[in-house]
TrEMBL record, chains A, B:
CDD domains: NAPRTase_A. It comes from Petrocella atlantisensis. PANTHER family: NICOTINATE PHOSPHORIBOSYLTRANSFERASE. GO terms for biological process: NAD+ biosynthetic process via the salvage pathway. Keywords: Glycosyltransferase, Ligase, Phosphoprotein, Pyridine nucleotide biosynthesis, Transferase. Residues 154-334 form the Nicotinate/nicotinamide phosphoribosyltransferase domain. This is Nicotinate phosphoribosyltransferase. The keyword Secreted does not apply. Residues 8-132 form the Nicotinate phosphoribosyltransferase N-terminal domain. GO terms for molecular function: nicotinamide phosphoribosyltransferase activity; nicotinate phosphoribosyltransferase activity. Pathway: Cofactor biosynthesis; NAD(+) biosynthesis; nicotinate D-ribonucleotide from nicotinate: step 1/1. Pfam families: NAPRTase (PF04095), NAPRTase_C (PF17956), NAPRTase_N (PF17767). One of its GO terms (cellular component) is cytosol.
């Protein structure tokens, strides 16, 4: 994140609640908050966690400058003693999180914050903002890259992103989800992502002829040459001119190892097949056909099904905004208070069933099929619960509780997903590079059954509650209801 | 924008093209680019221009730091002479733009850049990014606020925005489009927007009882008190407890002028009517009922049609992401070269008809009906064309050219929309405050006929080409086609 003061990147009610706690001298009291989400974007059966590295930066730099204090003072709502507390604010709590690039499912904590209530409350909004955004784009990217198969996908969306950060951190998330490069130079610099791109229509229009424009570009850039062929007419003008230039380069012995064309309008299936034939006939079987123009996972899948001869995809708007589902519904809910050594579980009921929360200090166990390494289910339990892989394990659906499944001893393995990131305010975790996270994400995606990767109507992966957690939750629901 | 180096907030191909022009010694040659968009978001018949103030900041601060130069050097693509040019880069061109808050329509220039080709090319991506984002959110906000009528709408979306900037600049754009306040404290500070909010579910859950939580909050904040009533059960628990606290405040003589409740789940029409009745019966006719929970313009309209007793709307996700259309399709196209004193019009053809561009150095005239002050049509003309309101004016649709309309002398008025912002690299325009822009936007919205403000299937407003521009365009199309 930019090194500016982001202490005020929060909702106003966080500050009014903080002051409330402060004057009730409850500011030392610890609370546990879970960050989780309720449904996957874009009809996916899973999501990809992303944004943790920026959360770490945010927490490490979280102090209120005098300018911010002065602004808060000017609102006439905050008392001097509270402002003085903010002046010396530092995050002192613990944060556990699922690592970036991990496959995640609804209703399981992906971040857990254990901190004095004021601190836990302040950071809610920024954590949600950062993780919601990057997890959204990483998930969309995983879908787009899945549709593209082994083809390379480049993130092209900066101009349509929702502001500079959306372009910059969106490019990072797109790489985590599987993209290989970006057009965004600043993101390239910040996250060491290869930057790609050649020329725009304006280049072609700036020359007296398309041929001259292509020739000029190709002679300038000898390492790689992709010519945009649709400024005037793809098949009648762009392709013939590109082939002329490729032939000239070949004669000069300067044809680059990687070269080809970019299609940016028209019917990409039809044009790519025609272009392939023209290139092949001219002896340019190695020329790569790349395409851009309102691509998403569905269009890429359909183009490939129709035999489009495209092997390099530039995906812009629909990826950088996750256009069919532009928000990731992460929420941040109180699950317990800690008073002294006692954990007091808390629950929110709500008029909407799906807004019920899971109480207590929890952990998330991922259960894999030992033979295939695929995910069987996730199990949310209380932290003190212990499971032994050499024992049978009975899991059940928390809504349709009669749906049970018994895993045989030694047929499964268990992995705990929440990893310590901050302990007592100190960061204890070092983020991998963006490409290391991408590589880890590929191994994560391989733990999903194919049925759960399908773009449409994918098989859901169950997130179960342990019997102890289920019993705690339903006891608390009943206890609350009788009080009305 | 943050005071960081945003010179690299651009697509890689801008830099490769710049270097190409640089070594051809064409870097002094001027070009004209138009920034325009092709269709309105969310089925609207219009959009609201926004983002210009951040474009001005970007241009004013546009220099390459040594760190950026070093990064570009590391890519192995750029020559020392070109990097040295970047080291001394400064924008020296002219920028004309439609003012923020102006009602705009597809296919008319909303920004025009006249600058040396390298400069015009570099700034393309950032201009599109900033203007696309803020115009999108301002447009969505205008729709949401239209649905809310005279009710106040507060922007609540930071946690679901696509990164920090999307939350910050999205809040600004939401105010331009009609919102009255935001929950986003940093946006409040940066743009002098009132910040609002009271308490979250976690506050209620952190107390032993809801009543105690409400009482505690109300006693802390005496100026305004909105209690969130859906943590356990809106009608059985939240409302009765809120009324108890309002009664206590009344007895103590500390009931604030502005007070009420917030509904955040359940059926808002049903609950608000029940809540209104309960509050009224308890003598709290003045208590305001506010609501949040997945609101957008359609739901607000339907709730109001069903007699929901809500007069304050907190709109989050759907506004801050423009969820039903999360990208504004602004593009930036070369329209002319200037060589010496000669303007050479340029056109892009493309395989998609709607991607044809309008050539030449243009201006945008808005034609109002003199009697009503409503917009008759916009007319895009070449800059040298002159129109006299005392003469009849014949306008025609540029697609269905047989559709003509003759405006009688003195029955219409003409206003030029593009205003000089930068001349020779110097900013000649001072942005109003965000609330001044909001006020201007309200007057702009009043120039639309009601038929064009409808949320669904709204009447389009025509953007016509002058006969001279139309003739130029079609002559150039024909001339290009014969060369294939």
């Amino acid at each position: 994140m930019p090194q500016q003061d982001l202490s005020l990147l929060t909702d106003f009610y966080q500050l009014t609640m903080m002051q409330g706690y402060f004057f009730q001298e409850r500011f030392g009291e610890k609370s546990i908050f879970d960050l989780f989400y309720r449904s996957n974007p874009s009809g996916s059966s899973f999501s990809i966690a992303a944004g943790l590295d920026q959360v770490i930066d945010y927490i490490n730099n979280l102090t209120f400058t005098e300018e911010s204090i002065h602004y808060l003072d000017s609102l006439g709502v905050f008392e001097p003693a509270f402002l003085d507390y903010l002046r010396h604010f530092k995050f002192t709590g613990d944060i556990y999180a699922v690592l970036e690039g991990t496959v995640i499912f609804p209703n399981e904590p992906i971040v857990k914050v254990i901190a004095p209530i004021c601190e836990a409350q302040l950071i809610e909004t920024a954590l949600l903002n950062i993780i919601n955004h990057q997890s959204l784009i990483a998930t969309k990217s995983a879908r787009v890259n899945w549709a593209a198969g082994d083809d390379m996908v480049i993130e092209f969306g900066l101009r349509r992103a929702q502001g500079p950060d959306a372009g910059i951190y969106g490019a990072r998330a797109a790489v985590i989800g599987g993209c290989s490069a970006t057009s965004n130079v600043l993101a390239g610099k910040m996250f060491d992502i290869p930057v790609k791109g050649t020329l725009a229509h304006s280049w072609v229009m700036n020359f007296d002829s398309e041929l001259e424009a292509f020739r000029s570009y190709a002679n300038q850039y000898k390492a790689s040459c992709f010519l945009l062929v649709d400024t005037y007419d793809t098949l009648k003008s762009g392709l013939p001119n590109a082939i002329t230039v490729f032939n000239e380069l070949q004669e000069q012995g300067t044809l680059p190892e990687r070269y080809g064309i970019r299609l940016d309008s028209g019917d990409l299936a039809y044009l790519s097949k025609k272009a392939r034939a023209m290139l092949d006939q001219a002896g340019h079987e190695k020329a790569i056909i790349s395409a851009s123009s309102d691509l998403d996972e569905y269009l890429i899948r359909d183009l490939k099904l129709q035999g489009a001869k495209i092997s390099l995809w530039g995906v812009g708007t629909n990826l950088i905004t996750s256009s069919d589902c532009p928000a990731f519904g992460g929420v941040y809910k109180l699950s317990a208070q800690i008073v002294g050594d006692t954990v007091i579980p808390k629950i929110k009921l709500s008029d909407n069933n799906e807004k019920l929360t899971d109480p207590g200090n929890k952990k998330v166990l991922r259960i894999y099929d030992k033979e295939t390494g695929k995910i069987k289910a996730d199990l949310v339990t209380l932290v003190h619960e212990h499971y032994d892989e050499s024992h049978p394990l009975i899991i059940f659906d928390p809504i349709s509780t009669w749906k049970t499944s018994t895993l045989k001893p030694n047929s499964y393995t268990i992995r705990e997903l929440l990893v310590p990131i901050f302990i007592n305010g100190t960061c204890v975790y070092e983020s991998p590079t963006t490409f290391e996270i991408k590589a880890y994400c590929q191994t994560e995606l391989a733990t999903l059954w194919d049925e759960s990767r399908r773009l449409i109507n994918a098989q859901i992966v169950y997130v179960d509650l342990s019997e102890e957690l289920y019993t705690l939750k339903h006891t608390m629901i009943k206890a609350s209801r009788v009080s009305f």
